[in-house]
Specification:
The complex is a heterodimer. Mean pLDDT of chain A is about 85; it is low at about 175-184. The longest helix of chain A has 30 residues, at about 15-40. Chain A has helices spanning about 1-5, 15-40, 50-75, 80-85, 90-105, 110-115, 120-125, 125-140, 150-165, 175-184. Chain A is built from ten helices and no strands. Chain A is mostly helical. In chain A, helix 2 packs parallel to helix 9 (about 150-165). Chain A has one domain. Chain A starts with a helix and ends with a helix. By secondary structure, chain B is α+β, with helices and mostly antiparallel strands. Chain B has one domain (about 15-290): Sulfite Oxidase, Chain A, domain 2 (Alpha-Beta Complex), CATH 3.90.420. Chain B contains eight helices and twelve strands. In chain B, strand 7 (about 185-190) and strand 8 form a beta hairpin. Residues about 30-45 of chain B have low confidence and may be disordered. The chains are: A mainly alpha, B alpha+beta.
């Protein structure tokens, strides 16, 4: 990141840009997923206001990541991009994660949330967990041999998912859903 | 097999005199190969613009010093290349433990500018200097049963911090079929840009096979074995369905994760097409006549 600000993108600038934007999207996605556990842990309900903001930032980085790939790797050739997605599972999961983030970003403005209704909005936005899993898998599969870094992000994701799990009392979706809807 | 050589040397192929001066300086200073009486003809093997020296020396895959591209330049300072001994074993008439100078003594120094295509779909253009591996093999006199050569890289945890993590089964091993090893394009490189190899580029001697993916070029070689059977090579052992023994650059055979029909030349933004055998098909394709290159990737 500092390199980008200095204008120094290294020997392979496109790789630097692709990697930096992809990693930023993943990290900010994890920050978004951390919102609820941290909010509960610290007892700061106001933090929920940051959730949509960070989610949209994750989407913005994912969009930039995809745009760099589409322009520099494939010169915007839809055929070449489609072939790449079909042939390579790691490109496919990355693209799937992007489609999920796109759907979530498109349904994040308050009027859209109201039109969808809280429960349907919540069900759709639960897909962010799937996006997180796919993003980590995307990173894991592209690494040649040294998988330590993607595994660290995978571990963070598992911890964040585990933090969300609470023994359910009575009905499955009571207070938690109400709380999340109020948050938006 | 007849290898065509250019009949004359166009002016664009003459190396910059400043580079030459520095090369002579270096030769004189290290005394390496100084005894060699023969000067091989200067031969550039590509019109491509050489990749800048600082890129070649800072963007490296040398996992013994770390898996990030800039790790080798940061960490390879701990490698001691003097003295250096190369053990020659197997079916060969002159086996032994050779000090580096003795191993290369009497062999003509050559300079070649080759494209280097990494399996990760990036490429560089490197002005190498060194000796033809074929000349070294002739000097060592292989036996009649020697069909393959195996090259082993140093694996010393005291000098190589990356060995602490078993990303590959150390030591790093590469190999060639005898006809590939004897091919005049195949080099034992000892320098780039007229200067001795830096540690991160595989000092003091490394293999360079320009029509194969870069990982075939074993670095900091400590052992050469003459074998009857195909050696087991590191990346092939690590992921057999991804990396073959031959590893010839082939735009029609894709790696499971990287398309191989295009590559990014370092310093360029858009990709360019990858050529069969990395553009050396006219010189090497005949080595593989009749072989299924899809099966023997």
């Amino acid at each position: 990141m500092a390199g980008i600000l200095r204008g120094d993108l290294g020997a392979d600038p496109v790789k630097t840009l692709t990697h930096t934007t992809g990693l930023s999207a993943l990290v900010i996605l994890l920050v978004t997923l951390a919102n609820t556990p941290v909010r509960r842990l610290l007892g700061l309900p106001a933090l929920v206001r940051l959730r949509r903001l960070t989610g949209l930032f994750a989407f913005a980085y994912a969009l930039t990541h995809l745009a760099i790939y589409a322009v520099f790797d494939h010169r915007l050739s839809v055929g070449a991009i489609a072939a790449d997605i079909v042939e390579h599972p790691w490109v496919l999961v990355g693209f799937a994660a992007f489609v999920i983030l796109l759907a979530l970003a498109a349904t994040s403005p308050p009027p859209v949330v109201r039109r969808l209704g809280g429960l349907r909005w919540q069900r759709l936005h639960n897909a962010i967990y799937l996006a997180g899993v796919l993003a980590v898998l995307h990173f894991y599969w592209l690494v040649k041999a040294d998988v330590r870094e993607p595994l660290v992000y995978g571990l963070v994701l598992v911890v964040l998912l585990a933090a969300r799990w609470r023994p359910r009392k009575g009905r499955a979706h009571g207070p938690a859903v109400a709380e999340r809807i109020r948050g938006n | 097999m007849l290898i065509g050589r250019p009949a004359e040397i166009p002016s664009r192929e003459i190396t910059d005199p400043a580079l030459y001066a520095s090369r002579r300086e270096w030769l004189a200073s290290v005394g390496l190969l100084a005894a060699s009486a023969v000067r091989a003809p200067i031969r550039q093997d590509t019109d491509d613009k050489p990749t800048p020296y600082d890129v070649i020396t800072t963007y490296n895959n040398y996992y013994e010093f770390g898996t990030d591209k800039d790790d080798p330049a940061k960490n390879a300072g701990s490698l001691r290349t003097k003295p250096w001994t190369v053990t020659v074993e197997g079916d060969v008439k002159r086996p032994g433990a050779y000090p580096l100078d003795d191993l290369l003594k009497g062999l003509p120094v050559v300079e070649r500018t080759y494209r280097m295509r990494c399996v990760e779909a990036w490429s560089m253009v490197i002005p190498w200097m060194g000796v033809e591996l074929g000349a070294l093999i002739k000097k060592l006199e292989p036996g009649t049963r020697a069909k393959y050569l195996e090259f082993t890289t140093l694996a010393d945890p005291k000098q190589m911090p990356g060995l602490g993590y078993r990303v590959l089964d150390w030591p790093y091993v590469e190999g060639l079929r005898m006809d590939e090893a004897m091919h005049p394009l195949t080099l034992i490189a000892t320098g780039i840009y007229g200067k001795p190899l830096l540690n991160q580029n595989g000092a003091p001697l490394r293999l360079t096979v320009p029509w194969k993916y870069g990982f075939k070029g074993g670095k900091s070689i400590v052992r050469i074995r003459f074998l009857e059977t195909q050696p087991k090579t590191s990346w092939n052992l690590s992921a057999p369905h991804e990396y073959g023994f031959f590893a010839n650059v082939n735009p029609r055979v894709h790696h499971p994760r990287w398309r191989q029909d295009q590559e990014r030349r370092l310093g360029e933004f858009f990709k360019r097409p990858t050529l069969p055998f990395n553009g050396y098909a006219d010189q090497v394709a005949s080595l593989y006549a009749g072989m299924d290159l899809k099966a023997n990737y």
